[in-house]
Amino acid sequence: MQPAGPEGRDWIREAPDAPGFERMEAGFAGHAFDPHRHDSYGLGLTLAGVQCFDYRGSRRDSLAGHALVLHPDERHDGRAGGPMGFRYRMLYLAPELVSAALDGGGTDSLPFVPGGITADRRLGGALAAALSDLERPLEPLERTQLVLALAEALRALDPSARPRGPAGRDAAAVERARALLEAESARAVTAEELEAASGLDRFRLLRQFRARLGTSPYRYLTLRRLERVRALVRGGESLAEAALAAGFADQAHMTRRFRAAYGLSPGRWRAMIS
Q1: Which CATH class is domain 219-273?
Q2: Which pick of 129, 167, 197, 226 has the fewest CB atoms within 10 Å?
Q3: Has keyword Lipid metabolism (predicted)?
Q4: CA 150, CA 93: separation in Å to the nearest integer?
Q5: CA angle, 140 then 182 then 154, to 5°
């Protein structure tokens, strides 16, 4: 199968998934994404071609069968490494799911795999199971089992994240702040509100939020707004209408944030999923 679509057309196919566990498959003939950052783990498998990206200061080349591990808030881009393009499947996994899965083992920070690419069989097997069938929604218990398998595989690749005593005492406080941001993403949430919800002062909360979720509270809020934009556009709303409904000042504001988060414009994304 050709990595890219007919006549080199780029394409994206999204799976019917739950928030925090989003799967997709895509094919690109050349340039794929501008530099951008997610607030989730980007875990994937290269299926065909050579998948190139810049990550943590150097070029990475992923071949068919390699697993991708992009840590939350790490800047990266994407492009084909040859004339045939490339095809891959990806899972965007919320850091709070990883933290929750590992809390029983006393892990206080997110596992970090610095290289961006790995041939680790344990992680590859867990990813293959998670990405094997994009046509059907996963059952809740099945999804929970996959999250645990992926979290444990990531922890095994990061010695610093191995179990080391009881879970951090600020875990519940961070979760309360995260839940507030999730529920109120369409408006401006204040630092005072986060302090009241979490019981932590704002600077301790910022440190603990990043340690446990891999990003800042404001960036987390922005990504929730962008998820809302994507859902509204899929449902037929215009870009301008979706931007306002999701809490952005206007379409231009949303477009800047969309490109920074996903590496392509919302217009191009809408055309690729059509």
Answers
A1: mainly alpha
A2: 129
A3: no
A4: 9
A5: 55
Domain extents in the chain: 6-161, 171-214, 219-273
Assigned CATH for 6-161 = 2.60.120.10
Q: What is the pLDDT of residues 172-200, one digit of tens each?
A: 999 999 999 999 999 989 989 999 999 99
Q: List, in order, residues 6 or more apart from 126 with CB less than 8 Å away.
A: 146, 149, 150, 153
The percentage of residues in the chain with a pLDDT greater than 70, rounded to a whole number, is 92
Give the DSSP letter of residue 41. E
Q: What is the largest CA-CA distance in the chain?
A: 56
Sequence-ordered strand ranges (E) for 117-159:
117-118
How far, in Å, CA of 139 to CA of 154, rounded?
23
What is the reported pTM?
0.77
What pLDDT score does 251 carry?
95
Give the helix/strand (H/E) hosting 80: strand 76-80
Amino acid 37: pLDDT: 93
**Quick one: pLDDT band at residue 203, thresholds 50, 70, 90?**
confident
Question: Which residues does 22 contact at the CB level (< 8 Å), separation at least 6?
Answer: 14, 15, 40, 91, 92
CB neighbour list of residue 16: distance below 8 Å, 6 or more residues apart = 136, 137
pLDDT at 1: 44
